[in-house]
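Per reviewer request, we include the raw input and output of the structure prediction for the construct analysed in the revised manuscript.
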Amino acid sequence: MNIIKLQRADSDKPNTNESTGQKIANAAIRWLGTPYQNNAMVRGVGVDCAYLLVAAVVESGLMPKDKLNIEDYSNEWHLHHSEEKYLKYVEQVADKVDLENDILEIGDFLLYQFGRCISHGAIYIGNGLVIHAFVDYGVIFSKLEDVIFNDSRGRSRLRAVYRFRKEVTP
């Protein structure tokens, strides 16, 4: 796996002139280097890939922290169950992007299948890079074509791309 080092965003305040996607990407970048911790969302202490997406949207000022009520989950859920729990939460705040008719935009959520269901998320930050929280590495940048996003046969694990909607539904 190629780990890419980029400079962390300095400011904790969202820039009001940024696009929605750029706000999400910049908020996520502030989590760079945070260790991986399942079911956690404390910058600098611990976060998993699901809560990194939530943290980016909350810290960008686009959604209140209590908008999503995420149930505790095992970090091995995807190995034993096929219920799309991860996807269920993403669909509450984002719309699926049809990449045949649209292009990947900064701030888009990329959802990957490891095991029996979608179980990993990343945020596109531009220039072919995503930011995500990965077990043993914490919050890192990776290239879209990084081998970690492929299965053992070299096929992409990417199953869907979602874009945050400005109006969050309950």
